[in-house]
Fold these 2 entries.
Entry 1:
Amino acid sequence: MDKYAELKIDGKVYRLPTIEGSEGERAIDISSLRNETGYITLDDGYGNTGSCKSSITFIDGEKGILRYRGIPIEELAEKSSFIEVAHLIIMGKLPNSAELRRFSDLLTENELLHENMKYHFESFPATAHPMAILSSMINAASCFYPELVTQDSMREHFEVEAARLLSQVRTIAAFAYRQSRGLPFMYPKPEYKYTANFLHMMFSLPYQDYELRPEIVKALDLIFLLHADHEQNCSTATVRTVASSKANLFASAAAGVCALWGPLHGGANQAVLEMLEEIHRSGDDGSKFIQAAKDKNSGKRLMGFGHRVYKNYDPRAKIIKKACDDVLAKLHVKDPLLDIAKRLEETALQDPYFIERKLYPNVDFYSGIIMRAIGIPVEMFTVIFAIGRMPGWIANFKEVMEDRTARIYRPRQIYVGPTLNHYVPIKDRK
Ligand code: SDX
């Protein structure tokens, strides 16, 4: 039986169809609202608005549930790897051995940038933020693949293009780091797997290969895996918006990098570390900072806390917090910032301000502690997030590209500016 919602406007009742997703989420389909009623809806920050139907990731914010293609994040974190999860997210299934082999081979075959890309890196100042480099170099990389220019031309090569982007985002990130340190580029080694190769390109030296300690490779691989997708977050919604105009995959991902950069989104992991360092430097035990974070006029927020969807503990934060303890113990690292972070969490979770607003640690609260222990500089933290999120962006792009009914994203607005007025010559202006 068709289900619908009734809307009464100016005495007239309108019926709007409702839909229900596979996990029982319900929506009112307002596609015909403006034609039927002359009204649009207004929803600041889209907190109540669905932009699409998607089959990739499911989050239940109240229960703290996160599943990639139906599989709980806890199981994937314990049993899977970033590349296996990337295949799950992009292709819709966990790969069998042959599929994993082919996917890994595609990543290896496409790991090198065109040699001319070096000249672009050299033109950036050493102080350039790696997120600026990442976004521009993803677009620059696409210039070497003419078949990429349109969605239609790339459709038949999609798996190769997806593997190329996923592989090269890692190479671009590592080269951006090397450039910022005035170090020679370290090229990928075909015998290394994805995350090990990234660490090699980041930290090996011409005269000495980086020691690939299993606990470090596994910890970074886990961070990538935990960031792989997350429904219609700000950057993924940006990727879908750009994809909806029929722009190509690399252009859509480059836009996603820009959206992710902001400190309220992926930039929060860098902001958390800077916040913890500020607290540590000031000798505050965290209590002063918590007071400031509650004061709207302070301009401060407890970074790494709160979430638009999770009104419970972010399941990724739980996993990363445990990994923090494990990795730092194995590396024999005692980081005072971890103690500060744990104290902040303990204090905030007992404070009515945070309890009333259902503010809990999110994925960014502890991730930086692990990255810092690995030796990744704070300005690279959001780049690590972008590498991890690339499978999700690619999968969302694919959904838009394959949806023949997909319309270009073009929200409406309510105009509140000046009503009709006319041009005034400069001599008559006040
Ligand atoms: C990510 O969407 C995703 O899925 C994102 C992400 C992903 O995987 O893609 O999960 C990754 O971006 C995680 C979030 C990282 N950002 C931060 O940690 C920055 C700090 N957090 C906040 O700025 C905030 O919580 C957001 C941005 C995460 C969510 O913003 P909302 O949903 O718009 O909530 P809001 O700003 O309207 O806050 C509601 C209330 C406000 O107080 P009142 O006006 O009701 O009195 O909660 C307060 C806010 O002032 N609040 C905070 C706070 N977060 C919200 N107060 C202090 N510290 C905070 N961190």
Note: The chain has 19 helices and six strands.
Entry 2:
Amino acid sequence: MPKIAVLPGDGIGQEIIPEAVKVLQAVLGKNNLKFEYQEYLIGGAAIDQTGKALPLETLNACQEADAVLLGAIGGPKWDVLPAPERPELGALLPLRKELNLYANIRPVKMVPSLLSASTLKEETVKNVDLVVLRELTGGLYFGEKGRHDHPPAAYDVLVYTEIEIRRIVELGFQTAQERRKKLCSVDKANVLESSRFWREIANDVARHYPEVELTHMYVDNAAMQMVRYPAQFDVIVTENMFGDILTDLASMLGGSIGMLASASMNGKKGLYEPAHGSAPDIAGQNKANPLATILSAAMMLRYTFELHAEADQIEKAVTKVLDAGYRTADLAKPHEKIVGTREMGDAVIAALA
Ligand code: IPM
Ligand code: MG
């Protein structure tokens, strides 16, 4: 039986994960499929119970599972700990590294019924359909970091190996080939040596994908273009830090960060999580939007298990509930009726039928 390691984590993670599991069980049940779901501790919840943000039991379970479904980690309670022990540096980053999840996939597609939910003008976001491929196990996040005393200073080293660049750029070309055949590689080659190296490799990989049009864009310009004319983008490939920033920006092109699903891949193995955080300000109040997590579960069915029909069913059900006017607080306009986390999950299940 396919095994899924379920890691609710902290804050709204505890509320959105049950909704995604509920939807998975419903869609798989309808299609006579059975998965095994096992819950493990991660993040602040794990610190409170075991003293460690990423207990060995959790790491082992993630390594053994076919896929990992993660909620969110972190919160003010654990921000007082030394940085390496906190949920981000102590759990999420080591998990990505240990599982070698180098490819982070974040798709943004405007659902027509959410057009007015975006803070951007409708004509700007109307035809948005893009995917950002973010390199996830290299760059500034994983370079040497530290402090000097005399004079007081701090540093984070940005290194990329050729192999690290080549494999994510290749995935970019493959993804573009199956879509509108446009790949935009985002860098800062006018300033950074690592970006000039990235660009050379991207140009080299391009020789093997003659049907795909490769363009290069500086990251500052890419941020501006994303709000100016986002429909120009098909596939974007970029390094870790730029990808972190640009995907939060890109999420608003799809209405709300509460809609942004994410898959972190190494071949078929994947960790699936919403791109938003643990939102401690609304945690425990049945307010969070579970759709990014539900859509991440759909990505899991598609990428790890190749259950494309079932993934389609979930995505269609999500579109249907949005078309029917269901809105969590992050999506609602002042006069619109707001539903809670659980009601949104129930509505998606009802729409599967
Ligand atoms: C993300 C998040 C993480 C990141 C944080 C929680 C460490 O912002 O997945 O985009 O920066 O990668
Ligand atoms: Mg981020």
Note: The chain has a mean pLDDT of 97.
